[in-house]
Design goal:
With 425 residues, the chain is α+β, with helices and mostly antiparallel strands. 49% of the residues lie in helices and 19% in strands. The protein is built from 16 helices and ten strands. Helix 4 (82-95) packs across helix 13 and helix 14 crosses helix 15. The radius of gyration is 26 Å and the shape is globular. The site of NADPH dihydro-nicotinamide-adenine-dinucleotide phosphate has 20 residues, from helix 7 and helix 8. Keywords: NAD, Oxidoreductase.
Amino acid sequence: MKGLKKFYRKTLQERWDVLQDRKILTNEQIKCLKRTTDATELGNSMIENFIANYSIPEGVSFHYLIDGRDYIVPMVTEEPSVIAASSHGAGLIKKAGGFKTKIKQRLMLGQIILEDFQDFQELREKIDHEQASLLRIANEAHYSLIKRGGGARWIRCRKLADDLMSIDLAVDVQEAMGANMLNTMLEAVADYVRKEFSQTVLMSILSNYATECLAVAECSMPLSNLKKENFTGEEIGHKIVQASRVAQLDPYRAATHNKGIMNGIDAVVLATGNDWRAIESGAHAFAARDGLYRGLSQWTIVGGQLKGRIELPLPVGSVGGSIGILPLVKVNQKILNVKSAEELERIIACVGLGQNLAALYALVSEGIQKGHMRLQTKSLAIAAGAKADEIQQVLSMMSKTKGKNLAAAKAAIKEIRRNKQHERN
Ligand code: NDP
């Protein structure tokens, strides 16, 4: 489209002008973009073709008692009820002593993919034999990691097809998520493999299937703690176990079960400046690790206690990427008061489990809609055009109507304004 060529070379003002001149946006809409940008235009130096800072609401979740320590958890999400549910789930777990966590190890994996090799077995032996040299080459490519106590740890080979294989490099990336440092190391090793072993390298890149960076969170509570209105604690506990079984058996349910878990996880990953696409892809790959896509968490009853467990890859960082750049991330790290990326992993795993408990608890008792719609109605009122001073009235009118939809919200606003007009007359 004319005027959009070389958009990346234009100043911010020129980009807005083009969008307005080409009638892609109105003057009002351009004003809306302008209001989001700050004096430093940080976003302009972070991404390409920047036009605005898109903002998502942030809140805090409470009751996270993890390994004996209390945490306040910042969460960034556009979805109503996620934070309320998170605090509710964490509260149920705190009442019974809180979460316990385990971190198995913290290594990131990268791949060098070779094609058209001759003999897999022979090449694997050669690589095994030269493992020490290859690790040294990797470490020399990002030497600062060694000084921090990290570095390349091991290499393995996997045959993917008759003509394709993967050389996997495992690296201790210390406090970073490690994508860029690992990619630098992989390219150095790939270069050596290409020249010294005369192999054809298809590509080198880290893997987001971070199986060597797993976090586990567990909790346990007496069934009596789950009692609610018309249900006994035993009934709710039994139903939660059944719901957990369904998520192990049926990918249709597992996807939604895991979406609920990621509601919490993504919100903290975003708040801490981490790469949520990386966490999402790793989590879903892990959910399908035995060939069937399953729920990431499981619930059982043992000796009158409901026990929950979640395990997933959480390659998050406390430095690197946008973490050191976005001002709010620093504030959120302060709210969390975490000392390391490993501690952050532990918290995020707990948020996933707490979120899951709250969702299952609601689903198997009163259903998710009762609580959800209370908050969803507020979004409907705003989407229908309610002003700040009209929202409460819209909510109260909609609480009396059956159809809680956009049309009902619009009708409520119309009535409120009509009544106001009458009063004025
Ligand atoms: P960086 O490239 O920012 O590297 C980490 C930085 O943190 C380095 O500069 C390192 O310094 C510094 N650092 C300071 N203290 C420490 C410490 N204690 N431990 C480790 N590093 C420290 O970030 P990452 O390599 O973590 O890469 C993350 C970014 O990569 C994200 O933005 C992600 O979106 C992106 N990405 C993701 C991909 C994927 O997931 N597939 C692919 C490509 C990019 P020094 O240089 O001195 O070592």
